[in-house]
Design brief:
Blueprint lengths: L1 H31 L3 H9 L20 H14 L5 H24 L8 E5 L14 H11 L3 E5 L4 H7 L4 E2 L3 H5 L4 E4 L4 H4 L3 H7 L4 E4 L6 H6 L3 E4 L3
Length: about 230
Amino acid sequence: RRSSELIKYAANAFLATKITFINEMADLCEKLGADVQDVSRGIGLDNRIGPKFLHAGPGYGGSCFPKDTLALLKTAQDNETPVRVVEAVVQANDLRKRAMGRKIINALGGDVRGMKIGLLGLTFKPNTDDMRDAPSIAIVQTLLDAGAIVHAHDPEGMEEAAKILPDVVMADSAYSAAQDAHAVALVTEWDAYRALDLKKLHAAMAGDVLVDLRNIYRPEEAQAAGFNYVSVGR
């Protein structure tokens, strides 16, 4: 029984570590002029590592990874056997979410007071209404703290999100969230957002900044639609 309990915690902590690792590599890629998708593909070809859970983004959330990493930390502390790597993963992931909010702010020149920002995707992953520890929560708070006005759309999560984020205006479509916005940020990789009419999206906006936190679009595709395009690790 002890081993099986630890397997559950250790497995999710290891996957959380892979996610956090590639997110930090993405930051380094941006400084060095590398492409995190190439790096991810390259290291994933090594079958000792594998390609899964190596997609750079705004950090992990949901019901399992945050809970199980913290449970593992508490169990280790109670037994006076610290797990420093997992401690660092939890801290880095918390910082990551706020950093993605600042990434949006920096894409708008560093001052977003009074600006409208449209967020596409609120849940921690697509095909669920689950808002538990979703990166969008910290991203929204960072934007609101900076004085931005946030409108958001999510195919399934807006009812749950409204309970947690009462200061966010929920829009009935992605294009409504983008209407007169200075920037739009893609936060959750719903299939509906992979098929957006980028020219229509751009035409609805007051500005031209598209921040793609899931690397859904190819830079040349977004730029051809008129966007000042910002992605993660590229």
